[in-house]
Amino acid sequence: MTMIRFKFERISILSTQLNSTQLLHIFLNPSLFLRKKGRSKMELKVYCDRMSQPSRAILIFCKENNAEFEEVTVEIGKGQHRTPEFAEVNPMKQVPAVIHGDFKLFESHAILIYLASTIPGVADHWYPADVRERAKVHSVLDWHHTNLRRGSVGYLLNTVFAVAFGMPGDPKAAAEGEKLLSASLARIESFWLQGGPFLLGNSKPTIADLALACEVTQLEVADEKDQDRILKPHTKIVKWIEVVKSATAPHFEEIHAAIRSAREPLKKLKAQAGHKSE
Fold it and tell me: Using 50, 70 and 90 to split pLDDT, how confident is the model at 3?
């Protein structure tokens, strides 16, 4: 009872400063007021590479929700994620990672959940307060890492990135990756995209929409014929990506400009690697 009384006493101080709608919002969500009162700046650093799907999801979420943060670029292509300095941020030596005051965190899904819970004013649809709706979001995120992401990484690593940077690609691994990727896209259409424009049949996006849409959009680094072969059979996926882009405009397109600008340089590197192997 003491904590409840404390919250309402602090809220009552604002009664002459806010309109009725704002007061009702704080009344229903008093923790939002306490969180804002206790932290005026996020003091958030996001360590990322815009060529990385998980990095882009974090950046888009931060921009979409007006977070105060510093973007710290860690270029994977230059091996900056393997340096001792970055290991102090993330001992796993992968992006993205964040530092928020004295708190360090890695793994993109964990970061999205944390930011959705700490950035002031994040709309409920991103990470619902209802425990069952929240659990559904977690189920999509868990499925993502063992299905869609595994297929996407397996395919692109062995058809674009490895070959472009002079490393041996594995045709068998590429074929297995594409098979899992295509099966994952079909599963999204048949199960996750039911009853609404966004995943889980929702009318607005969650952090799961953001994570998975950025994964699918990673295919833009591949040759156009390969993109068409993989994506054209999945019309619901293509439509869903456009809906996510619209819901997060202009940030989705802004952040994804990095992979589009890298497409031609990657093609040249791939061609050069092909000539050397002949």
Answer: very low
